[in-house]
């Protein structure tokens, strides 16, 4: 095999962007591009989802963090909403029939605020007119005349009874306790002494007449009470007539103004009936200064204001809304979504009324769109269930979060549910979408539109120009210095590095924006008028420097030999594998020593990491694939009689992934064939059971990680990395590594089969290695067979 044919050239390691070919000098000459680039699939899905008006056609916008999905989604929705009509206003008013169930009233946008003002004006008028109606001279005259009639009728009753008593020889007397009858003798009240001198017959007659009069007295008292009640009712009717005379025109004007709105007219009728039925509440109480002072000292609650019931709670005011509402709720708790009922605490007693009902995001978004981040909603399970209930039932019911948990709470209001027409748009990662689709049976019924963001776009000339427009938009929006063509070119290259592909650009725009801001800051510090490539490069390097302390510490341990690793020579059963470590905002490559021991036995391949639970499932699968390869390659004539152990040396944090499976296979074959492997080469790539090399992730970080380790130990001119040929388009290596390859100080080899790498690592033909492995396995088999025969 010609090893040189596997070696990559410097031009394959990096795709530069030629600033001289960009059709501008700086971004002041570029038309700003304000929207997210290259997301046609999302755009079409969103436009369709926003236009379809059917239950369940809510939208889930899926995409990786930093792709700008929330910003783009809001922009698209706001554009659509601006063409739609404004939603209705919603008010809560007192329910005169069921006070614990406030009524919901809808009005055209803007009329709710006018309704509140009209009701406030009416209440202010009522406060003046109602007491005036009771205290007017005309009212007092009519009441005086009424009670004079009562006095006349009651006096007539008394006179009739008194006449009867006189005929019986008795007189009637009024006392503080009522009426009493007293027997007379010669026109004078009979004394006790005179009564005792009477003969028994006369006394019996007196007692009989006294009992008869007592019965008549009881009858008269009953008639007086009925008469008083009759006149009290007449007085109430009179006051009602006077009150109606005072307020009738006010209420009539309101009913006429809102005659198109049946709910408002019914509410105004309820006010009229309430005033007539509760006239005593509207009378000004007599002042009791001593009582008021005592109540103040004791902290007693003042009497309820009868006019509070007539206040209107404007729950949703759409007067300032242009088009349909677009609401983004950053903290979607249960109450922030569906609203809440507030309470007033007086001396430990909680009270509330319809004016303390507060709107939630669903109320404000009613008739329009509600945007939520799915991770925030799911962080509040009660909120997620409430949201689904609203979408299923088509109404917003304000309630306590504990109502659906069977937990007893204080008695509260039960406001009338408000019908809702809202399109909910959730944003989040694809993982959230898949989990909800799998485990929440309601989710597929309620969110039928999926709009998925791609985290990369094709690196075409058109998209490179669009990237320049994106940079221009950021400069314009944030008042930044313009980017020179060289600065734009370097950003494009950086974007391809983020995308890990020479023919792609990253759609993780938040990371690109960070570099734009930081590069502009470095240009400002340098006193430059424009942001050049050098400023972008400084921003990238400084960003790395702020985050790579751990990488430097590991590099020191490798250089000092604390972490064992050979970068020269050859050894049997030992190879350099490559891994990627992620510290959150920074990832880097780390070489690791992989060792393999093979010996007589029938246990197969022992994955030491798995035995101590430091291995993930994908790595376990990779090791099992190795057993499949060995069986298919060497066990056609005799079974495998082998025990082998594989280990990532000095690994204490765990390992996962199959990108080291090729390196592990090379270590096993080296041990079996007793052929040393080059230690100046590192290997990355997975392998299948057929011996084909498969691509892996993090190729740039892995290559750079081994390069810097070799550099710290001393570059020999023979060191390099063996990698899958499929990963060549993913190469966007930094300038130093590219220059080292160009100078022949470092080398990259792209392979497609295990045999190609085997020859690079051993310097021997692959066929010879396989013969040695077969011979060793045959030897193991023969020994075990002999042991079985004995």
UniProtKB/TrEMBL annotation:
Keywords annotated in UniProt: Coiled coil, Hydrolase, Protease, Serine protease
BP term (GO), one: protein catabolic process
Residues annotated as domain Lon proteolytic: 569-764
Keyword Protease recorded: yes
SUPFAM superfamilies reported for this sequence: P-loop containing nucleoside triphosphate hydrolases, Ribosomal protein S5 domain 2-like
Positions in coiled-coil regions: 217-244
EC number(s) from the headed UniProt entry: 3.4.21.53
GO molecular function, one term: serine-type endopeptidase activity
Enzyme class, spelled out: hydrolase
Catalytic residue list: 659, 702
Recorded catalytic activity of this chain's protein: Hydrolysis of proteins in presence of ATP
InterPro entries: AAA_32, Lon-like_helical, Lon_proteolytic, Lon_Prtase, LonB_AAA-LID, P-loop_NTPase, Ribosomal_Su5_D2-typ_SF, Ribsml_uS5_D2-typ_fold_subgr
Pfam family for this entry, one: Lon_C
PANTHER family listed in its UniProt record: ATP DEPENDENT LON PROTEASE FAMILY MEMBER
Family the entry assigns: Belongs to the peptidase S16 family.
Listed name of the protein: endopeptidase La
Organism: Carboxydocella thermautotrophica
UniProt lineage: Bacteria, Bacillati, Bacillota, Clostridia, Eubacteriales
């Amino acid at each position: 095999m010609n090893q040189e044919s596997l070696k990559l050239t410097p031009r394959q390691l990096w795709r530069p962007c030629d600033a001289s070919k960009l059709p501008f000098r700086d971004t002041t000459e570029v038309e700003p591009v304000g929207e997210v680039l290259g997301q046609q699939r999302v755009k079409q899905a969103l436009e369709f989802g926003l236009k379809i008006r059917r239950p369940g056609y809510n939208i889930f916008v899926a995409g990786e963090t930093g792709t700008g999905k929330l910003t783009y989604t809001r922009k698209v929705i706001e554009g659509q909403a601006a063409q739609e009509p404004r939603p209705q206003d919603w008010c809560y008013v007192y329910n005169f029939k069921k006070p614990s169930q406030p009524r919901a009233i809808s009005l055209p946008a803007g009329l709710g605020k006018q309704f509140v003002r009209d009701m406030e004006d009416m209440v202010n008028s009522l406060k003046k007119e109602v007491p005036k109606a009771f205290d007017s001279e005309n009212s007092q005259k009519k009441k005086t005349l009424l009670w004079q009639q009562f006095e006349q009728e009651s006096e007539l009753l008394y006179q009739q009874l008194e006449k009867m008593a006189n005929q019986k020889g008795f007189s009637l007397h009024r006392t503080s306790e009522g009426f009493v009858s007293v027997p007379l003798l010669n026109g004078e009240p009979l004394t006790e002494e005179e009564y005792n001198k009477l003969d028994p017959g006369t006394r019996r007659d007196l007692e009989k007449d006294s009992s008869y009069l007592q019965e008549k007295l009881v009858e008269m008292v009953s008639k007086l009470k009925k008469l008083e009640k009759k006149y009290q009712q007449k007085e109430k009717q009179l006051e009602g007539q006077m009150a109606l005379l005072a307020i009738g025109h006010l209420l009539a004007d309101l009913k006429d103004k809102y005659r198109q709105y049946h709910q408002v007219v019914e509410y105004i009728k309820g006010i009229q009936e309430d005033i007539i039925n509760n006239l005593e509440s509207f009378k000004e109480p007599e002042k009791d200064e001593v009582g008021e002072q005592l109540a103040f000292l004791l902290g007693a609650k003042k009497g309820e204001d009868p006019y509070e019931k007539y206040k209107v709670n404007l729950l949703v005011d759409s007067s300032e809304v242009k088009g349909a509402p677009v609401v983004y709720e950053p903290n979607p708790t249960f109450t922030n979504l569906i609203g809440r009922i507030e309470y007033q605490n007086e001396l430990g007693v909680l009270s509330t009324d319809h004016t303390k009902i507060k709107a939630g995001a669903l109320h404000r978004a009613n008739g329009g769109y509600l945007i939520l981040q799915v991770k925030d909603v799911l962080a509040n399970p009660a909120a997620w269930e409430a949201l689904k209930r609203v979408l299923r039932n088509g109404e917003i019911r304000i309630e306590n979060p504990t109502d659906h948990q069977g937990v007893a709470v204080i008695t509260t209001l039960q406001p009338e549910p408000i019908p809702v027409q809202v399109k909910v748009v959730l944003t989040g990662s694809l993982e959230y979408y898949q989990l909800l689709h799998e485990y929440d049976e309601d989710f597929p019924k309620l969110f039928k539109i999926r709009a998925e963001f791609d985290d990369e776009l094709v690196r075409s000339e058109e998209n490179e120009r669009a990237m320049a427009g994106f940079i221009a938009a950021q400069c314009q929006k944030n008042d930044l210095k313009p980017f020179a063509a060289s600065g734009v070119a370097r950003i494009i290259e950086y974007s391809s590095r983020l995308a890990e592909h020479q023919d792609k650009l990253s759609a993780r725009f938040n990371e690109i924006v960070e570099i734009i801001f930081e590069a502009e800051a470095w240009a400002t510090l340098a006193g430059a008028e424009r942001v050049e490539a050098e400023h972008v490069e400084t921003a990238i390097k400084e960003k790395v420097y702020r985050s790579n302390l751990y990488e430097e510490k590991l590099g020191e341990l490798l250089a000092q030999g604390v972490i064992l690793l050979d970068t020269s020579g050859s050894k049997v059963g030992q190879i350099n594998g490559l891994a990627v470590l992620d510290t959150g905002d920074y990832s880097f490559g780390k070489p690791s020593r992989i060792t393999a021991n093979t010996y007589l036995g029938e246990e197969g391949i022992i994955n030491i990491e798995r035995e101590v639970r430091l291995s993930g499932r994908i790595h376990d699968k990779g090791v099992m694939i190795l057993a499949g390869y060995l069986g298919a390659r060497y066990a056609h004539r005799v079974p495998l009689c082998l025990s082998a152990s594989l280990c990532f040396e000095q690994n204490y944090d765990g390992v996962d992934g199959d990108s080291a499976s090729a390196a592990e296979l090379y270590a096993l074959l080296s041990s079996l064939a007793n052929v040393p492997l080059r230690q100046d080469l590192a290997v990355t790539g997975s392998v299948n059971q057929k011996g084909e090399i498969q691509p892996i992730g993090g190729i740039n970080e892995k290559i750079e990680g081994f390069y810097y380790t070799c550099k710290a130990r001393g570059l020999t001119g023979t060191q390099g990395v063996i990698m899958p040929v499929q990963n060549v388009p993913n190469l966007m290596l930094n300038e130093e590594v590219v220059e080292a390859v160009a100078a022949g100080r470092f080398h990259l080899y792209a392979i497609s089969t295990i045999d190609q790498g085997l020859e690079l690592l051993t310097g021997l033909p692959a066929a010879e290695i396989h013969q040695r492995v077969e011979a060793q396995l045959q030897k193991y088999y023969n020994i075990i067979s002999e042991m079985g025969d004995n």
